[in-house]
């Protein structure tokens, strides 16, 4: 029984994660900041979108929340940022 459980666990852990279709709602009234990585002046959503895309996810960004969110598997709502 332990061998079967170990095999099932190994197969589960080896399976690659599937990329998700995500929506980023940029609701920060157009706030911008200087990107410390050198991309210039960017929107506050820039780093989140860049990280999600680097993980292989398909990301749609908008300042308007759509009435229908069913096409998306996840929604990120970005409302503000603070320096401390």
Secondary-structure map:
Blueprint: H1 2-14, E1 21-26, E2 32-35, E3 40-43, H2 46-54, E4 58-62, E5 74-78
Parallel strand pairs: 1-4, 1-5
Antiparallel strand pairs: 2-3
The helicity comes to 25-40%
Helix and strand element order: HEEEHEE
Tally of strands: 5
The average pLDDT score comes to 84
| N/C terminus separation | 53 Å
Strand order of the largest sheet: 4-1-5
Number of helices: 2
Shape: elongated
Structural class: alpha/beta
Largest sheet: 3 strands, parallel
Low-confidence stretches: none
What is the beta-strand fraction?
25-35%
Question: Radius of gyration over alpha carbons?
Answer: 18 Å
Summarize the structure.
With 84 residues, the chain is of the alpha/beta class. Helices cover 26% and strands 29% of the residues. The strands form 2 sheets. The chain has a 3-stranded parallel beta sheet with strand order 4-1-5, with helices on one face. The protein has a two-stranded antiparallel sheet with strand order 2-3.
Question: In words, what does this structure look like?
Answer:
By secondary structure, this protein is α/β, with parallel strands linked by helices. The chain is built from two helices and five strands, in the order αβββαββ. The chain has helices spanning 2-14, 46-54, and strands at residues 21-26, 32-35, 40-43, 58-62, 74-78. The strands form two sheets. Strands 4-1-5 form a three-stranded parallel β-sheet, with helices on one face. A two-stranded antiparallel sheet has the order 2-3. A hairpin with a 4-residue loop joins strand 2 (32-35) and strand 3 (40-43). The model has no long low-confidence stretch (mean pLDDT 84).
